[in-house]
Amino acid sequence: MPAPEARASGRILMVGALSIRFVRDNWVAPLRQSYDAAFVDIAPLRSAYSRELTEQYLCRLIQ
Prior knowledge:
The protein is α+β, with helices and mostly antiparallel strands. It has three helices and two strands.
């Protein structure tokens, strides 16, 4: 029986159009299994806030 895969070290912040099923299935799911990852769907942010406020929010997440 093969050993389970170990999670890679490091942290990832993925920002994108995560409401698209293809992106969720082919990017989010695999990253979530392998990394300590946080995900931000940009579509709701961009529809509610200006570009500047969205960028400020993302910069705060990185810090």
